Amino acid sequence: MHTHPLSHSRLAIALSLALVCAPVCARPVPAGFEELAAGQIERLDVRLMGRSAGVWPVFVTPEGVRLMDPEPVLAALELSEDAKAVLAPALSHTLPRNGHLACQNTAPEAGCGYLAPPEDPGTVGVIHDESEGVLNLFPARQWLPAAGPERERYHRPNERAQNAFIHQQMLNVSGGSGYLSLSALGNGTVGVLRNAYVGVDWNYNRQQNRGYGSRDDFSFNDFYLRHDVARTHYVQVGRMDRRNLSSSQGGNFAFGMLPLDRFEGARFGTTQAYLDQAAVGQGSPLTVLLSRNARVDAYDGERLLQTFYLESGINDLDTTRFPAGSYIVSLRIFEDGTLVRTEDAPFNKSGVTWDDTSVQWFVQGGRLITRDARHHEGAVQAGLRMPLRPNLAMTVGSAIVDKVAYGELRLEGRKAFGTHEFIGSSAMLRGDDGSRGLQQQASYRHRVSGTVYHQRMRGGACTGNYLNPESLGCSDALSASLSAPLAGGNLYFGYTRRTTYTLGRERNDVPWFDGGLPPIAPWQPGDRQGQLSRTLQASYSRTSQWREMSIAARAGAFTQHTGATEGPRRDTGVYLNLAVSRVVRTPMTTRQDRVGVDLQHGRDEQPDIGYRIGRTRRWEWGTGYRELGGEVSGYSNDQKSASGSLRQQDDYGATAAAVSHYRSRQHSDTAYTATHTSSFAWGRSGLFWGSEYGSGAGVAVQVQSPEDLQLRGHAAEVRVAGARRQLLRFGQRRLLPLSTYTLTRAEVQDVSAHDVAAAVRVDGQGSGQNLFLPPGKIWMMPIELDLTYTFIGSAHDDEGIALQGARILNAPLPTLGNDGGFIADFPQRERTLYLLQDSRLMECPLQVREQRSVVLLVGAVRCQPLAVDRLPAKIQQQARVQRLLREQKLGEQMPSVAGRRAQL
Q1: Where are the beta strands (DSSP E) in 390-435?
Q2: Keyword annotations for this protein (predicted)?
Q3: Most-buried pick from 156, 265, 476, 621 (CB within 10 A)?
Q4: What pLDDT sits at residue 25?
Q5: pLDDT greater at residue 152 or residue 448
Q6: Is 497:478 a contact under the CB 8 Å cutoff?
Q7: More confidently predicted of 709 and 838
Q8: How many C-beta atoms surround the C-beta of residue 528 within 10 A?
Q9: Contact yes or no for 810/834 (Cβ under 8 A)
Q10: What residues pair up with 640 in beta bridges, in sequence order?
Q11: What is the largest CA-CA distance in the chain?
């Protein structure tokens, strides 16, 4: 396009005039908006790459933003001390808003919401998202917190966790005609030191039968003190059993034959409870920052290593499958299928993982606790697990029980070929009393899954040389199973063979295992009797959907041979099960209808046909649910039954109860059962009650109680460790269970409740926390709330004239409109609106006529003149109000602070 030569000169002159005139010709700020233009304090959700610090005060102007108090914000983000020292001064200055980079909810563009971290560690970039009320921070990479577990071998427990007594209890009651069973069990932990706790496990049983009296039994299964040393070793003293030896708390000791019974004494050993399993096999960390959910492709040159689908925030890539070596990894970030940027990072991986070099051991000794009160002999056990090479380990164990020594040697290994995986183990046992044992197990997993298990045990009980409750048994066992997908269902084959050898009876005809005296002479091999049982079964199951119904079908055949004293028994048969269920969901309830048909035909029995018809209805609310169910069933042999059930979970626990009535040609009977579970934690902050069972740590949540007593409903949503969300009410205290020695996350979010008069947002520190807690610890999570009451109406004087342009003194808000209309947001429920129109001071009672969601409609309100000295002190003491009163020459009428105190 051709341009006239004079056009350039004219354009230059026009631009010069515009620049010169800009400061002079700029239009003044509209009346009533001067304070907004000068800047105001807003409460924004401060986030660092998806990690929220909660809602904090931020001074916002049209040009920039500034944190009012950056130190607690950085503490809530769990940044290092060095990061806090450098970033706090930077956030104390006004920073460019960069609002144009925020993502729009309607149509977000690829790459929006992201600022490249600055090279200067002393600067911070921000993006102010006005539509969402969010302030996103972008510091230098070196200050970014870790996305997940620390990049070291062991996790660190949270320093601010508190010691507490955490206990879970379960009560069971069942009964019927002539009998009653009552049982209670519980387990608890008490944190006593920083790295120590007391564990207890108890149970109580009461059995009562008509004509046989009753029996009570109370016992402690475990009662010990445990102290963890340097996150790698532990010492445990008290009463304990073998359970912790086959878990991360005590090691991976999978002894299958070595006698390791309950005892009272001490145990020392290594622990893997603090081991960061997620870091096993990782190389140098690769971190990618995402402002939105995205796909990340990792390349070594032109070779694609792996594709990740990640959520927004700080993400550490899982490099377990990356090849060993040192090379540059290129990360290509795609949003909505569009490549937005590419990042290169150096990567190094040695190829040696932590668990390949981990040696585990334990030693324990004390007094044996036996089923026979006459035996209280000493016991000493020890174990050592060593890796021989990657994916191959050897375990050696020895035990001296009741003056008899045993030893077990075990090899475990696994091998993977692509998607095929083989796992196998072999163990051998020897004892001074002539005990011998062999155990082998092998499994294969691909599309087809198969397992074979064999054990042969010849313990001291086989010869009778050492007959006591701790003597090893005498048995042979073989089992095999195969499972494979077929035509949309699953095909299963299973085979078991077991031979149990038992000894005859003594002269007094009392079995030795019931408390009879040991025999005088050794038993002869001929006294040993074997009982053989074999089972072979095959089944096919499939579940399909048709319209709104789920159809589950299962067909199978079996053959069984069982040896018995009166002679062997054989049984062969087939069975068929068909169940149809339909689920109907509404916003408040869920209903399930089900119908089932069963057919079974054995070798010596007539075909047995049965039916089942049932319905279940469930109601859910914020912190629990209630479920009612009923079912009737019948069989071709004239047996009929009907049952009803109730399940409920609330703030006080989980309860389940059922009543069933059975009737046949000969008799009828009614049975009932009920179960209640709950938990609690008691610590420095008081008592917290929970409804879940089975956890040694927890999160103690306490929601702020509002000053407005009329405020009811749900205030916050809490989710711990990915479990079902909990909607908590104002002022509620709740214990949420947390798995011990496991890295989990506790999230707090706003909740939208239409029955609440105010808009509620989570305030204060941290809406999310990464937690790693040993037993006996609780994490206090106080939930502070930011309340906003929105009033809409119009103000008029006593003559009905609209108070046009009046200023609101309760809070810094725009002036009233031409019709006196106002939209006022307050952090508390205001009863009176205070206005200043020219030199007139007015008070307007706010009476809510209608509530729509979180908006309070007050309509047209009549205002009365107010003397300056009647203005409430909390409003009068504001610098903004004092300035406005002085401008209208009303400041002289205000009493002094000393005078007001004297009046009070």
Answers
A1: 392-401, 404-417, 420-431
A2: Signal
A3: 265
A4: 40
A5: 448
A6: yes
A7: 838
A8: 16
A9: yes
A10: 634, 663
A11: 130
Percent of the chain with pLDDT over 90: 25
State residue 876's pLDDT score. 86
Q: Helix, strand or coil for residue 10?
A: helix
Q: How many CB atoms lie within 10 A of CB 688?
A: 23
Lowest mean pLDDT among 10-14, 78-82, 284-288, 573-577: 10-14
- Number of residues that make up the chain: 904
Residue the block writes with tokens 């009653």: 180
The answer, yes or no, to whether residue 695 has pLDDT greater than 70, is yes
Q: What is the pLDDT of residues 773-816, one digit of tens each?
A: 999 999 998 888 888 889 999 999 988 899 999 999 998 888 99
- For residues 240 and 263, is the Cβ–Cβ distance under 8 A? yes
Q: Say which residue, 553 or 570, is predicted with more confidence.
A: 553
Lowest mean pLDDT among 148-152, 556-560, 744-748: 148-152
Q: Sort residue 419 into left (φ over 0), alpha (ψ -120 to 50) or beta.
A: alpha
Q: Which amino acid is at 686?
A: G
Measure the CA–CA gap between 697 and 681, rounded to whole angstroms: 9
DSSP string, 12-65: HHHHHHHHHHHHHHPPPPPTT-HHHHH-EEEEEEEEETTEEEEEEEEEE-SSEE
Helix (H), strand (E), coil (C) string for 853-896: CCEEEEEEEECEECCHHHCCHHHHCCHHHHHHHHHCCCHHHCCC
| Least confident residue range of 12-26, 166-180, 535-549 | 12-26
Cβ burial, residue 429 (10 Å; 0-12/13-18/19+): buried
Nearest Cα to 56, choosing from 762, 718, 745, 746? 762
Strands 855-862 vs 744-750: parallel, antiparallel or unpaired: unpaired
How would you label 463-486 residue by residue, b for 16+ Cβ within 10 Å and e otherwise? bbbbbbbbbbbbbbebbbbbbeee
Q: The tokens 């808000």 sit on which residue? A: 813
- The rounded distance, in Å, linking the Cα atoms of 837 and 802 is 11
14 has a pLDDT exceeding 70: no
440: nearest Cα among 404, 405, 480: 480
Give residue limits of the domains in the chain: 34-143, 281-351, 788-903
Paired sense of beta strands 489-502 and 474-486, if any: antiparallel
Please tell me the pTM assigned to this model. Answer: 0.69
Residue 124 clears pLDDT 60, i.e. is over it:
yes
**From the candidate CATH numbers 2.80.10, 2.30.30, 2.60.40, 3.90.1150, the one assigned to the domain spanning 281-351:** 2.60.40
Q: In this structure, which amino acid lies at residue 611?
A: Y
CA distance linking residue 630 with residue 639, whole number of Å: 18
- Mean pLDDT throughout 39-61? 83
Average pLDDT over residues 215-242: 90
What confidence tens digit (pLDDT) does each residue in 457-514 have?
A: 887 667 655 545 456 778 889 999 999 888 888 899 999 999 887 654 433 333 333 3
Considering only CA atoms, which of 362, 355, 344 is closest in space to residue 412? 355
Show the beta-strand stretches assigned E in 232-377.
233-240, 263-270, 287-290, 294-300, 303-310, 313-316, 325-335, 338-349, 360-368
User: Residue 70: helix, strand or coil by DSSP?
Assistant: helix
Round to whole Å and give the CA distance between 48 and 40: 23
Q: What is the pLDDT of residue 474?
A: 82
Query: Which one-letter amino acid corresponds to residue 505?
Result: R
Q: What angle do CA 154, 155, 158 make, to 5 degrees?
A: 150
The larger pLDDT score, comparing residue 241 to residue 865, is at: 865
Measured CA to CA, the distance from residue 560 to residue 570 in angstroms comes to: 6
Q: What pLDDT, on a 0 to 100 scale, did the predictor assign at position 376? A: 59
